[in-house]
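Field: sequence (string)
Field: structure_tokens (string)

Example rows 1 and 2, in order.
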Amino acid sequence: LEAQPLLTKALTSLTGFSIGDILAQKFVNDDGKPYDPMRTLRLGSFGFFVHGTTGHYFYGFLDSKLPGTKPQTVATKVLIDQTMWNPIFGLMFFGYLNVCEGKSFEEYTKKVKADLKTAVMGSWAVWVPAHTINFAFVPPSQRLLYINSIQIGYNIFLSFLGNKKVDGEDKEL
């Protein structure tokens, strides 16, 4: 983590997203379809290329602008994370899957309209308390690693939502 923070965070994000998708496919999705390794590859690569890297820079930026662990500082960081970063993250998540699956911009906008609100609001139950702990007690260099440990469970929800069909869609996302 100290020698290569960006790579370490990208690799832990790859792991968290991959494990979350495997668990979602094995235990949550009840569609009777066989395990889809390409789906796990898409989710894992999102973790590696997008979540790990953007998280590294976003949380570093947030900590540089709002240093410390005073309750007001922690609350401000959680508020910024959940009202600004959370929707941006959702747009990146659905956009990445859309591009990887070769879908059109119209399909992307339908997905965003159908599921972004659910993704953002669903995250509040997990990430408001998790980030309160994160910003109050976790050292800045380890924030994304902490997030990735919780992210495994949350990724089951994201994997399900990211691969849910949108009305009128013939094939799985």
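Row 2 begins here:
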Amino acid sequence: MSSFEEAETEETVTCLHLTFYHPGQAEKMMFRCLDFCQRQQLRADDTAKFGRDSSLCGYSLVDTRVSRIQFSLQFYRKLHTSEYAFEIKNLSKKTKLTVNQTELGYLNKIDLPWRCIICFGDYQILAEIQEGEAMDYFETHLHLAEAPILQERCLPFLQPVPENGVSPSFPLSQGKSPTEIDENEM
């Protein structure tokens, strides 16, 4: 047998990709303590903590408006399945955290969707879970966004469509309110 045949089967590792954005990141450099170069491996029983206090948080944000511990991410295996997931918990007493528009107060927690946007203050973090099989550890891979993750999209003004499904061919006049027409009068 060759050494290739005797080698252990390679496991894929669950990786949490986190893309950070803050409008003042160029001037304030609040992400300078984060390692954007390589993946970081954490034990499955470790909690990934994000906040201002570098002695308590493995992911430190250099900003006095960030709580000492802002939030945590816990890796776990779902009950009666082989699926792995992350749970996010807001640990800030002063700042609410939103995950895809779900607002979390202090000590509230939810399962992290496989792709979501985490917001607090002016911070925007795109979180994407890359599934894996390893159960003893997981990885994080940090990225820095050049542009806002959340973009306000201006929808064009749409004229209402009558119940008969036919749009009026004339534009609504400024200052005049639309009048209701009985369908039998058409």
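free_text_note (row 2): The first helix runs from residue 3 to 6.
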